[in-house]
Amino acid sequence: MSDTPSDRCGVLLLNKQSILVCSFLMLAAAGYHIKSSIAQASMVQAGVGVCLAVGSDSVDASVANVNVETGPNFHRQVQIGGAEFIMGTSNGYPEELAAHKASVESFAIDIHEVTNRQFAAFVEETGYVTTAERTPDPENYPDIPAELLVPGSASFIALDDRPKGQWRDWWKFIEGANWQQPKGPGSNIEGLDNHPVVHVSYLDAVAYATWAGRALPTEAQWEFAAQASAQLKQANTWQGFFPLQDKALDGFDGIAPVGCYKPDSNGLFDMKGNVWELVTDAFQPNVNDSTLAHMRVIKGGSFLCADNFCKRDRPQARQGQEEDFSTDHVGFRTVALPDTRAANNTH
Fold it and tell me: CA geometry: angle at 277 spanning 273 and 280, to 5°?
């Protein structure tokens, strides 16, 4: 039985070729124009850009910015003690297998994901241009039609904005989408300073971390730090039957600002749900397989994780993401370099 464009496009492991080709197929098949229905939408949502609940152990959507610092090193971090632990699982998705011993030394990690405000400071000082804002080099993508190689990024598309009858086609490559225009031309991040920055690739995250005198966490660091989050009952995930209805029972339909949910016992916010987070490790389908070229691990799940789909809002969950590709459900946080841990420890 041959599969349809919809069957091929409802994927979790995202890459540039599959998203671009699927977008092209569905546009051609349905005569559907993303920019006409999506790009004109404003991203300004009243009351959703303020939950930076730094230092708070309660969830309050009315909390204003608390102790917002300035400068390149304005990350608030907590120190995580080193230890040996069991990484992965023997009862999960194939890429999470198998449970094995791992160890980490003490490290300091950001209490929340890097925000639009923080990333904007980096761009303002350096003039950095993200991968989503650049035109891809055709030599690097010989299997993608040249007409599809345009600046942009992948976005989750709500049910009402999908082609008629193509309810499974929830990912689209949007020309012109980037961290400053998350839904494409005509959208913006006004009022979303405290939202995690998205539409950034692994290469962008590394550039930011280098500028800030930090690094991305290793997968072992991230998973060890996230173990405390497994006990949290509430996080920004999908409530309802994915991908048809998000009831938004957690208070948010889509990405939430950082710090809107109770932190874990380490003092870390949003280690489950909200946005996937990039780490340094190259992606392996499992510990016995070879790494995939140009793929990096993402951790933690996102606002798209539902009971019936993508139950990956867990510490052991992992997926692969191309180094030079971005989406609207992947962000990152940083760890301090060894010689800066003491200066940045606020635990």
Answer: 155
